[in-house]
Amino acid sequence: MKVANLDERIHVLDNSSNVMTVINEIAESGLQEEAFYVLDVGDIVKKHQIWKELLPRVEPFYAVKCNDSLTVLEVLASLGTGFDCASKGEISKVLSIGVDPSRIIFANPAKPASHIRHAAAVGVDITTVDNESELHKLKKIHPNAKVVIRIRCDAEVAQCPLGMKFGCDPNYEAPNLLRLSRMLDLDVVGISFHVGSGCQDPPVFYRAIRHARTLFDLSKDLGFKPYLVDIGGGYPGDTGTSIAKIAEVINSAIDEFFNTDDVQIIAEPGRFFVASAFTLATAIHSKRSVRNDKMSPNSVTNNMYYINDGVYGSFNCILYDHQHVVPTPLKNGCGKLIPSSIWGPTCDGLDQVVENVLLHDMDLGDWIIFKNMGAYTLPVASPFNGFPIPKVHVVVDENIWLLLKDLLPLTDDHFVIGNTPANLQLGLDIGGTKVDDWTNPPMGLSTSGIIGEPTQSSPFIYEYAEVEPIN
């Protein structure tokens, strides 16, 4: 596959470089003033290895909605994963990189008719259903569909519960859907469930797989030949988290209820693969020091930092995915820690990234890093108020590059050899060719520079004065 845009290329780093050295070099280069991401492809590859080791019977079908970056999809396709798609747009994007339609499950239980027609036209046959109207829709539009009945079995603790919207009752509704499928002459091939995104209740998988076994037996009694169990998503992916306990429960349940190679077990991991692979770098463009201590009117009681990404951009995950983001200053601070808050760039008062955190005093132009920003961030980001969505710089170390470079759909065109910052400057250009179009003067906005002598690098002129509180 030819890479038409150099923004999509994967930069191969030698042993002297890593994600943080790349971030440092870009931040200090003077070429980048907007927020940006660094995507570590090796992190995704390592997650895939962990999955195969801990869940050998379960084939991952990546949930595209979690992060539909073309690079992410291509890397996962090269590793042999399948894909969980929720719309005709996602189906088309996955097919465009050469994935076979049989490696896609259309796992949206409530689908617009036009999306079902598209799936039928391109050969995506496996699809989930949790209601009667969807079965009638399939009978009319896609009668050759391979139906997977989605049941509800909710985790007691989950980052994003899904049962309130999707999944039928396994004891009453699911048997009726199986009987209706039989009447409509639709082919039921399996059972699926989703315990909730970011599951913190491993035993729920045992309960759900047990329900699947019961419905498997009923579907056989009705004349179907089921072969598929889809155990959905819910697998944590942040740095420091583990799926080991969940895997132990799943493996035990599979051995108890589906101990046969005749049954294909798949899952729909999303955040597991990408959450820790993306690191976001943001810059402080404005700062407000609040002095509200009447006993010490010149002392700063808290700082408000305004950065160049917010809840309408990458940090939509705070609102929609219930994320708790952790700010880490790129430079080590000194002195006392000051109560601080971090705000996005828009004019909306809702645009608050961190409400209360202790930070060393920082200057304008300083960078704040946020790790674990790969899940449900970029796909939902918007350019509200005219602020751009952060660009993504993709890197990989040499060992992972040697593993991937000959695995389709990846080709030599996907990679560029060499360290930062020179080759990553190409990534600042929309077309990958004109670096100067994105070159900005150094920010030169440190408050220490404002107080002292003017610096040569700053294009701005300041007047600074201490102001007493207004009574």
UniProtKB/TrEMBL annotation:
Ranges where the Orn/DAP/Arg decarboxylase 2 N-terminal domain occurs: 42-275
Name of this protein: ornithine decarboxylase
Family: Belongs to the Orn/Lys/Arg decarboxylase class-II family.
Lineage: Eukaryota, Metazoa, Ecdysozoa, Arthropoda, Hexapoda
Catalysed reactions, semicolon-separated: L-ornithine + H(+) = putrescine + CO2
Active site per database record: C347 (proton donor)
Pfam entry (one): Orn_Arg_deC_N
GO biological-process terms attached to the record: putrescine biosynthetic process from arginine, via ornithine
EC number: 4.1.1.17
Residues annotated with N6-(pyridoxal phosphate)lysine modification: K65
Role this protein plays: Catalyzes the first and rate-limiting step of polyamine biosynthesis that converts ornithine into putrescine, which is the precursor for the polyamines, spermidine and spermine. Polyamines are essential for cell proliferation and are implicated in cellular processes, ranging from DNA replication to apoptosis.
Keywords: Lyase, Polyamine biosynthesis, Pyridoxal phosphate
Cofactor: pyridoxal 5'-phosphate
